[in-house]
Specification:
With about 160 residues, the protein is α/β, with parallel strands linked by helices. It contains seven helices and six strands, in the order βαβααβαβαααββ. A hairpin with a 2-residue loop joins β5 and β6. α2 crosses α3 and α5 crosses α6. The longest helix has 20 residues.
Length: about 160
């Protein structure tokens, strides 16, 4: 059975680090909008380009799941509505669906982002704004997802899902 793994968290939470590990361990295809936007010469904050790319990735993901391929998506998945929609669609295709929520305190997110890119575009204030609009998955939501096949941790915090 194909497996969709959704990596949920704010910038700096460790989604890419975890995704790279899972690609080898599961194995799976990894789709990361940030890397593609950068490679295509787009600004990472170009919301229209990001939306289009994520739509293309989701269509491609559905094709891969139909073919029995595991997929890791690193979109962040900030809203429950988005997570619910992807879970229902992937399950309708016969895929198992994991949600890996990477919960990291704001001060640590800011430290990681600062060390990653000097904080030039993603400041602590912007991260705080993001945090206020982020809907973290509650235990009742996590229970709707399949248990991870492989448990991984990244940079000292553990991803969570249904056990």
């Amino acid at each position: 059975m194909a497996r969709l793994i959704l990596l949920c968290g704010l910038p700096g939470a460790g989604k890419t680090t975890l995704a790279r590990r899972l690609v080898d361990e599961v194995p799976a295809v990894r789709l990361c909008p940030d890397e593609w936007l950068e490679a295509l010469g787009f600004d990472l904050f170009d919301e229209d380009a990001r939306r289009h790319l994520e739509e293309l990735f989701w269509r491609h993901t559905q094709d891969l799941l139909r073919l029995g391929q595991n997929v890791v998506l690193e979109f962040g998945f900030w809203s429950r509505a988005e997570r619910d929609e992807l879970r229902r669609t992937a399950r309708a295709l016969g895929a198992a669906v994991e949600l890996r929520y990477l919960e990291v305190p704001l001060d640590e997110l800011a430290r990681r982002v600062e060390s990653r890119n000097g904080g030039a575009t993603l400041t602590r204030d912007l991260l705080a704004t993001y945090e206020s609009s982020f809907e973290p998955p509650a235990p009742d939501e996590l229970a709707l997802f399949d248990a991870p096949l492989i448990w991984s941790s990244t940079d000292g915090h553990t991803s969570r899902g249904r056990s």
